[in-house]
Amino acid sequence: MNAKITTSKSIGLVLSGGGVRGMAHIGLIKAMNEFGIQAKAVSGSSVGALVGALYANGNSIDDMLKFFKETPLFNYHYLTIAKAGFLDTEKYVALFAKYFPENAFSALKKELHIVATNLQDGNEEFFSDGELIRPMLASAALPPVFSPIEINGNLYADGGIMNNFPLEPLLNTCDYIVGSNVSIVARLDKKDLKNSLQLTGRVTGLMIYASAKKKLSACNMLLESKEVDKIGLLDRKGIEKAFTIGYDAACRALEAQLKE
């Protein structure tokens, strides 16, 4: 695909899952803003769904970063033994309501698609209308840390389980697609595969990347920075670093686009 981003009638933005590494998505959005580029529609999975919702809501870059810095990942008040998961995801609804008081897709300024995994029937499901907050939480509810979210009688969890790069809703509706993938598969040293936990993490990462590989090549512009691989999925100390990595990479990519 050789279309130019500045001449496109409509731009779609796909944001992958990847925990704290997803702050690179916010860096991309900052660069797009500075180049005068706005997406018409956004599709996100897991942390990509959260960033996508904030972008579609019209929140500033500072507000987006503030959201992730101030929303507690771990709070002993949220611990649960009554649900499948260490933390009760339902407890986050009130925190999210501060940013999304109308709690509706229709209140957003941009078209938004969120993917979550239906744990009961084993399918991915997209949400783009109706209630907003619970699908957002479901998409980001990484097992076994966060408990599943119940929607219409079904239990939903992290969208990345089934679809970590949700390109599908934008394929036939956008002229130009920008993708940001922070679930990177970088080369590992032998010393990084010494125990079962490291091995499990690596295998899971490879499976997620393999399922998204073909879709990544369908983007007109794809942002993938291997530097984010060094940032832990739940390492809040990596927020600023991931953001900067994403911003720098996006600036370089957009400058290259404009020179073509």
UniProtKB/TrEMBL annotation:
Catalytic residues (UniProt): 46 (nucleophile), 158 (proton acceptor)
Keyword NADP part of the UniProt annotation: no
Database matches in InterPro entries: Acyl_Trfase/lysoPLipase, NTE, PNPLA_dom
GO MF entries: hydrolase activity
Motif annotated as DGA/G, chain positions: 158-160
Motif GXGXXG location, chain numbering: 17-22
Signal peptide boundaries: none
Entry keyword Nucleotide-binding: no
Keywords: Hydrolase, Lipid degradation, Lipid metabolism
Gene Ontology biological process terms, A to Z: lipid catabolic process
Segments forming domain PNPLA: 13-171
Motif (GXSXG): 44-48
PANTHER family, A to Z: NEUROPATHY TARGET ESTERASE/SWISS CHEESE D.MELANOGASTER (PTHR14226), SLR0060 PROTEIN (PTHR14226:SF78)
Protein name: Patatin
